[in-house]
TrEMBL record:
This is Uncharacterized protein. Keywords: Nucleus. Residues 455-467 have a biased composition (Acidic residues). InterPro entries: Beta-prop_RSE1/DDB1/CPSF1_1st, Beta-prop_RSE1/DDB1/CPSF1_2nd, RSE1/DDB1/CFT1, RSE1/DDB1/CPSF1_C, WD40/YVTN_repeat-like_dom_sf. The keyword Membrane does not apply. Pfam families: Beta-prop_RSE1_1st (PF10433), Beta-prop_RSE1_2nd (PF23726), CPSF_A (PF03178). It is found in: Nucleus.
Length: 1381
């Protein structure tokens, strides 16, 4: 049994749509990433154009994305569309989601729960759908969704020829139904009109009076519309029609490039109008003999109208009357089609996979985003109501035409002149554009140019046209501008200026991965290197699961236990600006608190006065002040913008001036009994400070204008409860006012407004951890969580911050809540203060590792600390493995560990040389650290990218050379292809737009500086298929072994010429280094190059220092000789091309997979050399990735095929069904939903499930972990995907499987699943009788934290699990054993 867990969600954007989702005037963007749905809003200023035509707002400081919510879906999203339905909860638009296997989900935003809500789900599969008995299956056919511009209906094309129509209710539909039922609209007692009925919200309507926003859907075979619609290509609903009308591009025969001459111009564009009541259609126009390479229908609104047909070589416009205009964008358009078109072949454009979006609705200009990411503008020549021609012009680089480097997968136009370019090949970009206006004259209407008489004549003509054409536009539409601007299209394109505002970073597609050692990592710590992206959007991604801070200087402070930094300055300097750098450091060593000046490290300590003792690092101890050194210091902070320093001691507060002269002493005593109280916790928020004392009472103090800190008078609200924890907060949640957020004795949340300490908010259900927290949430019995700490703070970047409530339980679990506003009486989400405030629980997977050594002297655990680190607001989690809670603007909050051991204390530190950094006390003393400036944390991993080459080249393969500490990387760039015959003659055809092939280059990259040391270009037309670093035997006599770089390649010489390959072995030799680059003292040296008759498709290291190769249709084992030859010593005839070749440790076992016959499993022996097949799969499958997985004395083989299904096979020769091992037993099948790119076997630092010693509920890593080379130890398989996702496959024992499977079953029925999709149906594979049995969906099990405390305890009880055991299980399946990454 196994468990699959998604460590990194998909990051490549597949679909996007812009719509007012959260409110009628909202500017939202909904993005689909394969199986992840994200809702964004765009925050920032609106870009404007200056008087000289340049952009003022299109800069990097412009609009930014802000994530509202993300929702994993149990399905693969195939399309998104917006629908204007009646009576949505927010008044905005609804979202229609099409998923794989013909499913439609209609969702809207739920302001009451601050998340998406599913209205309905429609399934068009099963026995009720008639399909061809011998036709393609549903999953083999493309499906696409289109929505009528007036939101009257939606159409989903699925299967080979099926069209599902989903009508939506419109204003007046109920009135028409009532008249049909016998009502008289003229009677006084007639029911209220539909218009009045629809103005009421769903909240005000009775449940029985609510009507669904949709009507009954129906399915039509396309051949019923027209028998010629046998091969549909694409369809879309059109604008400006009175009834739902769509245009469809189809052919009577399948278009085929191989039959270009016989099937030239075989496409037909047909326009149908739908009668939704009669479920009938009418053919309006038909345009035959269109170019066969057309593939997309883009509907156009006025002033252009009609539809744009996009092909690979040309663009064709068809207006409402069937008139066509076309333009050729490359030289092949005239060869591929006889269709009449204007010639712009000099553009040399390739329109495969391009994106089209409306740029300027006033002129009808369209934006083209080509497959290489470059931008172009398509302009129309308007001649009255007709189109006089199409003109395409590229956007120059100086105007921002190259700001985007990724191929588009989707485009979405947003408000304020912005366009979103989604991509599956790299980062997705938010582009802003402005248009030069000085040279443009404002166009006048006919009435303005010709007078009122001419306007009247136009109106009469329009009425005549309307009578002749039933589907013609209205008279008002006909009176649009009849003349075009005098600018040419090239001038129009030059008037646009584009700039990059923001980007959604992506790790997709992941081409390949390898493990390497980070530059400043400790022993045993590694990093994951991945080649991500395609084309010029590709880069090397250095990834670690923990943050690797940039190390600064280290200082020795004997016995230091606590530290604080502060910026203290005179009032004159504080009034003049911000606080600036920190200038004081306070260190408590258990007996005394010492004060140090934080000096510029460039200033010598000898320059300081004699009263100060200097450490060896620039910290100078300050003496001779009135600061109280003796005794324990609880906290140190500042008030009054740094003009007043406050020292919080156990029994008193002391305030100091900027020069540390004593100002006040405020004792902590009970006002009634004068009993001395001790300070437990302190929170600062200028000009207030909150003190929590050991009798669970609070005291709030305020800095007055005179500079004195005075306590506020207690009120009934402040004395009405005993307080466990609390903090002060002022921000967007409180409209800038300072409020005290307190945790009551029973765990309730209380908010007191300052300075009057009046209660303004009370949520008694906080200890139940409900999904939505509000004052009116009903109380439940049982399941109460014991809460110990409360922190309210902002998380995020400087541009986009979000307030959160963070609560910690007695088990050290963290729960995050984000605020939102909702008024139950009106259904409004406007901010009306605390009266409408609610909180939504935010997913934040975190497995705590508690350490008693960091507890305070009073036994309380070290508190959470909010700090500003590296231009971010973060929360520091103290513990055995310290962590940060970080939030990027485009992601939810993530918990990332810090690679720092033995940390006892933490403090933010901002000084010259360590700007916005932090300091920790560890075993080595005080270490100054900073967040890596180039790293990002959206995925929950720390990652940063490095582009190779200029322009950047696509990264295909990489390997780490441990002895030299370098990476060897294979990259490629596209170059023109010239066919070379067998005699070496190059054929030069008379074409300028030549086909392109990849030209590969090997780079030696320093693991320390990430700079290229050497670049070596491979021979022309030679494609690298595999790159490995292996330990090879270099001598037959001495059996000496050495680490070498082995490259397998295939020669691409043409489709009718036999393939050739080569094996090249490189050694890294020493050379004289560049004095300015010490790491440049190495270079690649060719030791051996063996050319083969067949292509080398895979490489693998075999025992004995041998090279395993997949050569042509054979598997060969080669050995390196002294003379530089690489000769075969054993071979096996596979009769197919091998795509995957793997070996299992040093056991001699190997597996080989291909895309046709499946997978072979065998063994290799050295004396004599022999390859022996021992088993194979029972059925054929397209093996895309495969890997061994040992567990508990058994050997499993994991396979991911082209259908994205995970197959679990077992080699068990003792089982009778295996025929003595000749057949691999098929144990389970599990649908992953992502296309795989690699599988890597990794050892775990944790013991197997049955052997885990539990320490406070988590597996103990301090015990000696099993050896990574020991098959009996726990292993994982790290799986990477084209979507940018990273998954982990973990073997589990029988008891753990039953426990997790029971949890999965209960959570499937309890949790709310986004878009109404069923996770059980998503993971099961219909062709296999056992479905997904045997594999647990770990991502679903991790969602147990979404439940409230009572519901969670109930589910655990039903599954026979407990909280500590669940924590241990989640730790292992979540990859805690990969702590070395």
């Amino acid at each position: 049994m196994q468990c699959y867990t998604e460590l990194v969600p998909p990051t490549a954007v597949t679909h996007a749509v812009s719509l007012p989702f959260l409110a009628p005037d909202a500017n939202n963007l909904v993005v689909a990433k394969t199986s992840l749905l994200q809702v964004f809003e765009v925050r920032g200023c609106r870009p404007t154009a200056s008087s000289n035509g340049t952009s003022n707002g299109a800069t990097s400081a412009g609009p930014k994305f802000s994530l509202i919510g993300e929702y994993p879906l149990s399905g693969t999203i195939t399309s998104l569309a917006s629908v204007k339905t009646l009576n949505t909860k927010t008044g905005g638009e609804a979202l229609l989601i099409a998923s794989k296997d013909a499913k439609l989900s209609l969702v809207e935003w739920d302001p009451e729960n601050h998340r998406i809500s599913t209205i309905s789900i429609h399934l068009y599969e099963g026995d009720n759908i008639i399909s061809q008995p011998f036709g393609p299956s549903l999953r083999d056919c493309d499906s696409f969704l289109t929505v009528d511009p007036s939101s009257r209906c939606a159409a989903l094309k699925f299967g080979a020829k099926q069209l599902a129509i989903l009508p939506f209710r419109q204003l007046g539909d109920e009135l028409a139904e009532e008249v049909e039922d016998g009502y008289d609209a003229d009677m006084a007692d007639a029911p209220p009109s539909a218009g009045l009925k629809r103005t009421a919200t769903n909240h005000d309507m009775e449940p029985e009076a609510r009507l669904t926003p949709y009507k009954s859907s129906f399915v039509l075979p396309l051949t019923t519309l027209d028998p010629a619609l046998t091969h549909p290509v694409h369809l879309a609903f059109l604008h400006e029609y009175r009834e739902p009308t769509f245009g469809i591009l189809s052919a009577p025969l399948q278009p085929s490039p191989a039959l270009a001459e016989e099937r030239k111009d075989c496409l037909t564009y047909t326009v149908f109008t739908l009668d939704l009541e009669q479920r009938a259609s009418t053919n309006l126009i038909s345009v035959p003999k269109l170019p066969s390479d057309l593939w997309n229908v883009v509907p156009l609104a006025l002033p252009v109208g009609g539809a744009l047909l996009v092909g690979t070589n040309s663009l064709v416009h068809v207006d409402q009357s069937g008139r066509t205009s076309a333009v050729a964008v490359n030289e092949f358009a005239k060869q591929a089609s006889n269709f009449s078109m204007s010639d712009q072949s000099g553009l040399r454009m390739k329109l495969e996979g391009c994106g089209v979006e409306m740029l300027d609705p006033r002129t009808g200009d369209l934006l083209l985003v080509l497959n290489d990411g470059s931008l172009a503008v398509l302009s129309f020549k308007l001649l009255g109501r007709n189109i006089g021609g199409l003109t395409v012009a590229r956007i120059a680089a100086e105007q921002g035409g190259l700001v985007n480097a990724s191929a588009p997968s989707c485009l979405a136009a947003l408000a304020d002149n912005m366009v979103f370019v989604g991509s599956e090949d790299g980062d997705s970009a938010l582009l802003g554009w402005v248009k030069d206006t000085p040279s443009l004259n404002r166009k006048r209407s006919h009435a303005q140019m010709l007078g009122q008489d001419a306007a009247a004549e136009d109106a009469e003509d329009a009425e005549d046209v309307d009578e002749d054409d039933l589907y013609a536009p209205s008279a008002e539409t006909v009176k649009r501008t009849a003349s075009s601007s005098s600018q040419s299209a090239a001038d129009a394109a030059s008037s646009y200026h584009f700039a990059l505002h923001d980007a959604l970073r992506s790790l997709g597609p992941i081409n390949n991965v390898c493990l390497g050692k980070a530059t400043h990592a400790n022993a045993g710590e590694l990093e994951l290197l991945a080649g991500v992206g395609r084309g010029e959007a590709s880069r090397l991604a250095f990834m670690t699961r923990a943050i690797l801070p940039t190390a600064g200087r280290t200082s020795q402070f004997e016995g230091a236990k606590k530290l604080w930094s502060a910026s203290v300055q005179p009032k004159q300097e504080a009034d003049g600006g911000d606080g600036g750098y920190d200038n004081l450091l306070f260190v408590y060593d258990g007996e005394q608190t010492k004060v140090y000046d934080i000096n510029d490290p460039t200033v010598s300590a000898d320059e300081k006065d004699g009263l100060r003792k200097s450490t060896a690092n620039g910290y100078v101890e300050r003496s001779g002040t009135e600061f109280e050194h003796d005794g324990e210091t609880v906290a140190i902070g500042t008030l009054g913008n740094g003009t007043r320093l406050v020292q919080c001691r156990r029994s008193e507060l002391r305030t100091y001036d900027y020069d540390l002269s004593l100002s006040q002493i405020i004792p902590m005593a009970d006002e009634e009994t004068d009993e001395e109280l001790k300070v437990v916790a302190v929170s600062f928020c200028n000009p207030y400070m909150l003190v929590i004392r050991d009798d669970s009472s609070i005291q709030v103090l305020k800095l007055d204008r005179s500079g004195d800190v005075e306590p506020l008078d207690d009120t009934e609200s402040s004395k009405a409860n005993k307080w466990l924890s609390g903090c002060l907060y002022a921000g967007s949640m409180t409209s800038g006012e300072v409020c005290a957020f307190l945790l009551g004795e029973e765990g309730a949340l209380h908010v007191l407004r300052l300075p009057d300490l009046a209660s303004c908010y009370h949520a008694p259900t906080l200890p139940f951890l409900p999904p939505v927290l509000s004052p009116d949430t009903p109380l439940r019995r049982g399941g109460r969580e014991t809460l110990t700490e409360l922190l309210v703070t902002d998380l995020g970047t400087e541009d986009v911050k979000q307030p959160y409530i963070i609560v910690r339980s007695s088990m050290d679990d963290l729960t995050l809540y984000e605020p939102f506003n909702y008024a139950a009486e009106t259904g409004s989400s406007e901010n009306a203060g605390f009266s409408t405030l609610r909180f939504r629980k935010v997913p934040c997977p975190y497995i705590p590792k508690y350490d008693e050594s960091i507890d305070n002297e009073d036994g309380r655990p070290a508190p959470l600390v909010s700090a500003k680190i590296g231009r971010r607001r973060v929360v520091y989690i103290p513990g055995r493995a310290p962590s940060f809670i970080v939030r990027e603007a485009t992601s939810l909050s993530k918990v990332l560990g810090i690679r720092a051991s033995g940390v006892r204390a933490f403090s933010a530190l901002n000084r010259s040389g360590c700007e916005s950094g932090f300091a920790v006390i560890n075993d080595e003393g005080l270490a100054e650290l900073m967040l890596p400036p180039v790293s990002t944390f959206e995925t929950g991993w720390s990652s940063h990218g490095v582009a190779l080459g200029e322009p950047p080249q696509e990264v295909r393969f990489m390997a780490y050379h441990e002895d030299r500490g370098v990476y060897v990387v294979a990259t490629c760039r596209d170059v023109d292809f010239y066919l070379t015959d067998s005699d070496g003659n190059v054929e030069h055809e008379g074409i300028t737009l030549r086909p392109q092939i990849p030209q590969f280059t090997l780079h030696v990259l320093s693991a320390k500086s990430h700079e290229i040391i050497q670049s070596l270009e491979m021979p022309s037309s030679e494609i690298v298929t595999s790159l490995k670093v292996m330990t090879l035997e270099i001598s037959e006599h001495t059996h000496e072994q050495k680490t070498m770089v082995v490259v397998g390649s295939a020669a691409q010489r043409g489709e009718d010429m036999p393939a050739k390959g080569a094996i090249t072995v490189f050694d890294i030799m020493d050379v004289v280094p560049d004095p300015e680059r010490p790491e440049s003292g190495i270079k690649l040296h060719v030791v051996s190059r063996e050319e083969t008759k067949g292509a080398i498709t895979a490489l693998e290291a075999f025992s004995g220092g041998l090279i395993g190769t997949a050569q042509g249709q054979k598997i060969m084992i080669r050995g390196l000789k002294e003379d530089g030859s690489c000769l075969p010593v054993a071979f096996l005839d596979a009769q197919c091309y091998i795509a995957q070749l793997k070996t299992f440790l040093r056991s001699g076992m190997w597996l080989a997979g291909d895309a046709w016959k499946g997978l072979w499993f065998g063994g290799f022996t050295e004396e004599p050399y022999r390859l022996t097949p021992m088993g194979r799969t029972q059925s054929q499958m397209e093996v895309m990735a495969a890997e061994f997985l040992p567990f508990d004395g058994q050997l499993f083989i994991m396979i991911v095929d082209a259908e994205m299904d995970l197959h679990v096979l077992q080699y068990d020769p003792e089982n009778p069904k295996s025929m003595s091992g000749q057949r691999l037993l098929h144990r389970s099948t599990f649908h992953l939903g992502h296309f795989p790119s690699s599988m890597t076997l990794l050892p775990s630092k944790l013991a197997p499930f049955a052997e885990q010693p539990l320490v406070n509920g988590h597996a103990d890593e301090e015990d000696a972990p099993p050896s990574p080379s020991d098959p009996e130890s726990l292993h994982h398989i790290l799986t990477t995907f084209q979507s940018g996702a990273i998954g982990l496959i973990t073997p589990v024992d029988e008891s753990t499987y039953r426990r997790l499977s029971a949890l999965q079953t209960h959570l499937t029925s309890i949790l709310e699943h986004a878009a109404g999709l069923n996770p059980r149906a998503y993971r099961a594979v219909e062709s296999e009788g056992f479905g997904a049995r045997g594999v647990v969906d770990g991502s679903l099990v991790q969602r147990i934290s979404e439940l409230g405390a009572a519901r969670k305890a109930e589910v655990l009880g039903r599954a026979g699990a407990d909280a500590w055991g669940l924590r241990s299980d989640l730790e292992i399946i979540g990859g805690a054993g990969l702590s070395y990454l």
